[in-house]
Amino acid sequence: MSFLLKTMVGNPMKSFGLGGSNEEKKDEGEATDPAAAAGMTREEFEEYQRQLVEEQMERDAQFAQKKAERATLRVHMREKYRLPKSEKDDNQIQMAGDDIDLPEDLQKMVAEDQDEEEEKSSILGQIQNIQNMDMDTIKEKATATFTEIKQTAEEKCALM
């Protein structure tokens, strides 16, 4: 019976601060140590924190490098298609430093595009384009166009 009375009266009294246990007071007064909360010694916790900071710095450096590579590619494309330059791309390239290289597959793509443009702009490229034309198709298109123009003129002209 005393247990029942103690439970009914004791628990509500603890919430008012009138009858608390020593453990609660000890937890409130003691400063919590993050190393102890993680289950490590202080040295292990400091080493762990240092490793986290180093990994974050490495990730940030890799991210900046990737952004600079993309910016370099955009600069190449803008030069190729004669588009206006972007200050944002220039800033990203400068932040990453001078040792920016495009990945190998992108370098191949840029080189292939430059080779194709050089071939097209050369005299040999123009001659090849002439050889690739189908003269019969061109004659048929010209004849069809001439016939259409002639029919349109006959319909509109009262004398013909």
From TrEMBL:
InterPro entries: Synaphin (IPR008849). This is Complexin-4. Residues 78-91 have a biased composition (Basic and acidic residues). PANTHER family: COMPLEXIN, COMPLEXIN-4. It comes from Xenopus laevis (African clawed frog). One of its GO terms (biological process) is synaptic vesicle exocytosis. Keywords: Exocytosis, Neurotransmitter transport, Synapse, Transport. Residues 1-44, 78-102 are annotated as: Disordered. GO terms for cellular component: SNARE complex; terminal bouton.
